Amino acid sequence: MTDWKRKVLAAIDEQQDELLALCSKLIQFPSENPPGDSREISAFIIDYLHQAGIATSIYPATETMLNLVSTLSATAEDRISKKLIFCGHTDVVPAGDRSRWDFDPFSGAIEDGYLLGRGASDMKAGLAGQIFAMTLLAKLGVPLRGDLALLVVPDEETGGHLGVPWVLERGLVTGTAAVIAEPSGPQNPTIGQKGSCWFEFTVEGTPGHGSLSPIVGDSAIVKAAKGIEALQRLWDIKPDIPEEVKEIIRISQEYVKESEQDGSLAWQVFDHVTVNIGTIQGGTKVNVVADRCTIQVDSRVPFGVDYRDVLDRARSLLLEAGIESEVKGFGFQGNANWTSSEEQIVTDLVSSISEVSSKEAYGVLQWASSDARHFRTHRIPVLQYGPAELSTIHNFNEKAPVWQIIQCAKVYALTALKYLEVEVEAGVNTVKNQA
User: Fold this and answer.
1) Which residue range or ranges hold the Peptidase M20 dimerisation domain (predicted)?
2) Closest of 380, 402, 407 to residue 180, by C-alpha
3) How far, in Å, CA of 301 to CA of 198, rounded?
4) How far is the C-alpha of 178 from the C-alpha of 419, rounded, in Å?
5) pTM of the model
């Protein structure tokens, strides 16, 4: 009788240095997006998987943006029709001003219990954990009854159009469930996300000599400022929250209050439309009255509000402010979405967290958006779980705790064993039934 659960978890403990080395290596590839070029990091991942006997199919969305699909096929005679997808992205947001980092953002160094560098939390440590878990299952020869796929995408940070949706729409990978290695709390995978409504509008003005303003000319920037102030009232939209998500919203609010993520007031965003004025581009010269100003807005949409209604309300608010302008949606567009906490992949991963950590675990909502929405569009139950120092995501000095990296790798492996099950030996139940 082989106790695969014990054997796999012990192997991760024994080989954790190899796992951390893989994390460091992925960070050393400066896969910033923009500009977006995944060729070098993809070549490394393909070779790493190949050494474990796992082949990879390459699907280029562009010359420089490569989607990778690798599959560890079931080896058990009593196969089942389940297929679990591990998913992660290789692109990271730009490091920005290097002088504001306390360390090289692409060093991948490990110091004082942290993995350091751009992408440590979002999300190369999580991706490394999935890659490591998959190769470990292959090397150990675990007789899985279902298939395990790894989907590595090059485009998530700028909208993701060349990544997960590009692959799913073409049927290049299919599955019955998915786990995305996006950053989360160590005990709290995210099982749902708010919707998104990115939009922009351009205000026209009349140029004139700056020395005569406001007597001469009509500043587009001043008019745009009135529009910006008016758009703050999007927060006041009242959601008609469906009964089935009221409880998970309450749980998520309490979770944030207790953990005080991003300040103790962040719990309020779960049932409100948020408004971030992301960019302002206007004017031609300091001494010229601005003839044009373009504003880009990032709005996140709660359950019970349609993102198209947010666009309509934005148009109304601008008109009330005296601004006649076309409101154009772009980038992230979509409604809030979630995976029920009763789905098997959710219960399997949550129970795996509790088993590995010996602490309570439960799913919560995320106030941002992610690739998870694309899986749900294709009716694939999905949730997110990954190591992170949440305050450093998209920030200078990004890092991730080593202990979380190891815990997540164990959770990925154990979830695969539970969801896909292991071939029944004579007189022995599957890993799933043992757990």
Assistant:
1) 191-321
2) 380
3) 10
4) 11
5) 0.91
